[in-house]
Specification:
This protein is 20% helix and 28% strand. By secondary structure, it is of the alpha+beta class. The structure holds FE2/S2 (inorganic) cluster.
């Protein structure tokens, strides 16, 4: 291998490394698909927000944040994974029945989870993952214990 050939080989190799590195690390965004925030140094979900600043929570009694459905139930806040355990469609909250129906209520769907996250209807085969909540003034902390 002569010098020119060697430099071309090294140059191509470096370009390929830069390309691979950038593809893996340059596509960051703050979309809803990003992992939920966590406490630095842990892998557990942990976030806090002002409940009066969330229009959905204020007006409808529930909201979805960081892949967690949060519902106001009396003076308490319930927090569960936001996607149905059947096929992953978003959940909703029914304040009248204090439960969490799947947004897909058509044929082959229709799962409903009670206020404890337990499946009470439909094809979902498992219960919801529960998160702890802690209110301090208007600030609600949602976290994994
Ligand atoms: S995705 Fe929820 S019941 Fe099918």
């Amino acid at each position: 291998m002569d010098r020119k050939q060697f430099i071309r080989t090294i140059g191509l190799g470096t370009g390929a490394i830069v390309f691979v590195t950038c593809v893996g690390g340059c596509s960051g965004s703050d979309s809803e698909d990003d992992p939920a925030p966590t406490t630095p140094g842990t892998t557990k979900l942990d976030f806090t927000f002002d409940v009066t600043s969330d229009a959905n929570l204020v007006n409808n009694g529930w909201t979805i944040r960081n892949r967690v459905i949060i519902a106001r139930s009396g003076n308490n806040y319930l927090a569960y994974q936001s996607n149905c355990t059947h096929q992953g469609n978003p959940l909703t909250y029914n304040a009248g029945d204090n439960n969490f129906p799947c947004s897909q209520q058509g044929p082959d769907h229709g799962s409903v989870f009670d206020a404890n996250g337990v499946r009470i209807a439909g094809p979902a085969s498992s219960n919801l993952k529960k998160y702890s909540t802690q209110i301090n003034g208007n600030n609600l902390r949602v976290f994994e214990p």
